[in-house]
Design a protein that fits this description.
This protein is mainly α. Helix 4 packs parallel to helix 6. It is globular.
Amino acid sequence: MPARRQAIRAAGLLVSVGVLLLVVVASIAIGAKQIPVGDVWHGLFGNTGTDNDVVIRDLRLPRTLLGLLAGAGLGLAGAVMQALTRNPLADPGLLGINAGASAAVVSAISFFGVTSLTGYVWFAFGGAAAVMVLVYALGGVRAATPVRLALAGTAATAALYGYINAVQIMDTAALDKMRFWTVGSLASASMSTVGQVLPFIAVGIVLALVVARPLNAMGMGDDTAKALGAHVNRTRVVAMVAVTLLCGAATAACGPIIFVGLMVPHIVRSFTGPDQRWILPYATILSPVLLLGSDVVGRVVTRPAELQVGIVTALIGGPLFIFLVRRRRMAQL
């Protein structure tokens, strides 16, 4: 039976990859502007500078790649957060990462005059990393239990959002510029942005997958994990670094997109069980499906305008998550 179960999970992972490839193709081919399939192919492999080629090569391709990276980062960060805090309702915002990135962006706009997405990326990532260090210090470096980390993250989030609101009230220009970023969008994607976030997300994915096995042990409690040979503090630090890299980079590039990091790990856990060695790879693959799929929906439903992906994920994710919680028996961490 265990061998058969492993085979079924592996087959499901391959199916998930196939679904992701289909969504990637849809993201490139479907948009606010209707482009024939032949022109889509020409824009990817035979670019001659026509209007359709520019739309495909310079707009939709970077947007799809950024959605792929951001989705993988948010979903994997959410899965690691839920395992790390042993809280099935945890998401990357629980430790103040989104608040730290937002506070850094509003500071960059209001005090340093930063107006480009390229500038936002570095400030947002720095803010996310700084808050993660602060939360871990407040939680107690050697006694950073899940409850301590959650409480420290909640306190940091409340304080930072108070600061963000104060700055925006005093600086209307910052409010106008922050409004679009805080909704969450892939519309401003470029190959430059993709190149900036790729190294951080790649390293974060590797670190997260490395700690899958010790996270399984920690799910049974710190004392049991130590008895099984897991290095609890080291695992917790590596996991937090992974979450910071994944969620910090994704939030910096796209803004704080909600529900991806919360909902996808729940869906995955319903058919993989609590084994992080399967939850993490599945979350990495299926989260971009949700994010890119939502982005495609947002491009189509309000043609020729677009609905930001952060709004669509909230509209889709809220009712679906309520349905999952009420109708399905979710596996426990």
